[in-house]
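ugh ok fine here u go
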Amino acid sequence: MSTYIIRELQHPNDTRQGEVVEAVNLTAAKRRATKQQLFQGTVMTIEYANQIDGQRLAIKENGKWRDYL
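structure:
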């Protein structure tokens, strides 16, 4: 299990506190983030929780996920 931070943002450069979740892999974290999305038109981001610099692993814009790996 890996620990991820999921954030729902107004736009990709926005900042706010995210939710720390555990998931088997990045795909499972994406599914969880999609289920947790509350508003239409927001951006979902996923980062490793143990990274100091907050490196993004994936971002969901306009309904499509894009990986940064």
